[in-house]
Amino acid sequence: MRQYITRRLLEMIPVLIGISILIFVIFQLAPGDAVSAIVDPKTSAETKAKLREQLHLNEPILVQYKYWVMDILKGQWGESFYYKQPVSRVINSFIWNSFYLSLASFLLSAILSIPIGVLSATKQYSKFDYIFTIFALIGISMPSFFFGLLLIKWFAVDLKLFPVSGMTNPGSTATGFALFKEVMHHMALPLIVLTLGSLAGLMRYTRSSMLEVIRQDYIRTARAKGLREKVVIYKHALRNALIPVVTIFGMSLPGLFSGAIITEQIFNWPGIGPIELQAVNTRDYPLLMGINMLLALLTLLGNLIADVTYALVDPRIRLK
Amino acid sequence: MKKILSVFLGILIMVGTFSSCSKPSSNQGSSDNKSLNKSQIEIIQATNPEKLPQVARDRKDTLIVGTTAPNGTFNPIYSGSLYDSWVCSLIFDGLISNDAEGNPIPNVAEKWDISEDGKTYTFYIKKGIKFHDGKELTAEDVAFTFTAICDPNYDGPRTDAVMYLEGYEEYNKDKENKVKEVKGIKVIDPYTIQFTLTEAQAPAIWNFGYGILPKHYYVFEKGNIKKLKDLFLKPMGSGAYTLKNYKPGAEVVFEKNPNYWKGEPKIKTIVMKVTNANTVVQELTSGNVDIDAVGKPEMVELIKQAGFFNIYSYPSNSYGYIGLNLRDERFKDKRVRQALMYGLDRKGFINAYYKGNGQVCNAPVSPVSWAYTDEINQYEYNPDLANKLLDEAGWVKKEDGFRYKDGKKFIIHWMTYTGSKYVESLIPIVKDNWGKLGIEVVPELMEFGTLVEKVYDKREFEMYNMAWSLSIDPDPSGIFSKAQDVPGGNNSVGWVNEESEKLMKQGLTEFNQEKRKEIYKQWNKLANEELPYLFLSYNKDNVAVSCRVKGVNPSPYIDWTYDIQNVEIVDVK
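ok -> structure tokens follow
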């Protein structure tokens, strides 16, 4: 197993280099650059040329790529054109906020969706199943910007139960548990929006995978030998049904860090989502590269984790 | 706080306003129908102050201002967005400031002289101004600040403020550290500093308003300007407030500087809290935020109904326009441009889009500027005259309803940008109005950054639309001069006019404001006649200020940060 993981990790290096070249070229091919985004009567063509020189934007793609690689080797991932600060610092100041929110939503939807999925499957075509299927469809089709505003209207403005937006109270100096409480209070509404959106998918996955498993011969055997229904479902069926679901969990690792652009924007959650969008608009290549490389790395790691957990939950799979 | 400036453009701001280009915002306007009028600031007074929510009443020593997220470039020579400039103006002081009419007034400099030839500026610094650490502000600090902008590795947005300083090139080009100082920056004595320019320019005074950095704190070796960036989040100046806490994307917290040289600020803590157009009304009406900009007329209406806000509405210092590529034979003909102007119901568009809160623009100057004039052609909607002008220009209407010249149909490809309500409202009106003249308009929507490259760098377009946010000085040469008619320059339409060049030069070298006014009046008449752009619209800014806040009087050249030490929180019955 250890050998397998080491091999996979080493394989990531060439893949990441390939990805970096690909992303770099794609961004460079987009029309305009960080300097052409500055349109200002106080910025003459001359000044723009100078800025381009300073940022190496006037050089061929390969040379620019070389500069980028050199920045990576120096650590800090280069300097963001827009923020004038090291990319690592920019990413660091936003990504954890996104992570907390996404992680909470991920855990919540996992806790809710698996039991609901299992119950829907075991009671297929029952009222319970229909109610949650409809609920899932609503959740998946509800636009988050609309649902978010609706929640703000109901719970923040009318009932005054939760704050309208933000992550902490303005000017708050809370620390420790008080800070945690404050953040949870602010997180409630965006958490509902995000969870409702992702709940449906996971729930349906669990349901269909469970349905498939309970039709298998060995489940019938288990029942035939007189095991109680609970043992059949939760001990024999569930474990097998979860195998495909585990893959989905592994794959959602990059999602935990990539931020939810729309939800974060509506609730003014200081996450990385809106920052990414802005980096595209301002053609901030170093920042874009930084974020995308990080996500690429997380995707690869997520796949690896999925494969390893696969082996852990399914004894038939042997990793070499 | 949603200002019309789009976040992803390099926006310069200094003691009020600098110029930049932006998309016309889709959320402007207020509920009042009065048309704009020069220097008219409309104030809707709070009707029910007693409705002020308890949360706001309980917040006795904290002012909360809504903002768009600043970037964290808290340094006056680096700040790129309006919001970073707000932060800087609370922490730093510049040599000069401006008054409500847009005239320069003393700040750190008690007074200044401009030499006969207009090339030498001497500033006399007030004695006894202290930085936050207690050290005195002297001419050395001013020299340091401006020398930093000249640094060979400087990559911020202020270069144009020092480009005309004598010795700039020598200092800036020298990477071996042989040239130790900029010739044009001279410390006469600790309280006197002199700047020498290579050419006289009336608006140059505005280059000296940027906040002053304490040398002893920021000092760095030439070329090693990275030091300034490392201190972005630990700014120190001589301003009324100090930075206490910054949470990127969430808030900036300030604490008062009790030793402020203009007097101790009355409010202990100021919080700039990030809000957005979706939730600004909720934040304001629930009492969470004291000051914020509101866009759409419906939103202003809701704030008005809340009853405890004073709403300031004033024309923003900007205009929206359509640019035609004047290198295109069809648009070289002035009659065609005028026909397009007469043939477009701009008023109809503005009424529909701004709901009575915008005004037709006829010249590239804001109605709030001292250089504004009414005595120009209003280009009222007149399709008959438009048809006549097109006939004269040789564009003949054929039986299919379209105009042709030399066998070519009159089709205009219009490049514009996505995601804007302004554009979405404009397209059908242009298509319909010009369609009636016999001109087919084919809109092509694209991402804004792509449009900018096509228009400014490649200059491959027939027609586009955008907006300019204007500077406090009315000099138009940054946009319309021949020198800007180069790839990457601002004169993307390629308007070159001898008369205009002459007037702009006169305007730049004339220091008497009355005379300058006359010159710009003439220039605006010329621009109105020649139509380098098809001018469209002016819009309004609306700022809601809670009735518990006294001393904040926003107007076109004045933000809430202005004279912040005098702002106070009062008890409301």
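Chain A touches chain B through 58 residues (CB under 8 Å).
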